[in-house]
Backbone:
């Protein structure tokens, strides 16, 4: 009986380990934040009502703000899993919107 209780306690401690949560947030901030910045660049490049060269420059510069915001949000979120879900979900929505905008986002 004590082995069962010990296994449950160990599993619970492992799943709520502060080190794992922090590590997950750091990885989410770096990789999922970068993915969100890239997806927002794609989205803005397709949908901004500017000349193509201006759209690309503006979207590229705006991606730094998006990346910074994603990093701040990752550490402000209630949990690491919520941060992952929000960042990956937004990335997928923006990327799909950019890619499905006729001719895979190739606006002239």
Residues:
């Amino acid at each position: 009986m004590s082995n069962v209780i010990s296994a449950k306690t160990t599993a619970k401690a492992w799943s709520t380990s502060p080190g794992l949560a922090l590590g997950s947030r750091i990885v989410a901030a770096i990789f999922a934040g970068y993915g969100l910045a890239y997806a927002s660049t794609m989205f803005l490049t397709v949908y901004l009502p500017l000349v193509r060269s201006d759209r690309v420059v503006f979207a590229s510069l705006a991606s730094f703000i998006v990346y910074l915001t994603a990093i701040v949000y990752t550490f402000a979120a209630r949990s690491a899993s919520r941060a992952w879900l929000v960042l990956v979900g937004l990335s997928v929505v923006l990327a799909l919107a950019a890619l499905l905008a006729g001719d895979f986002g190739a606006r002239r």
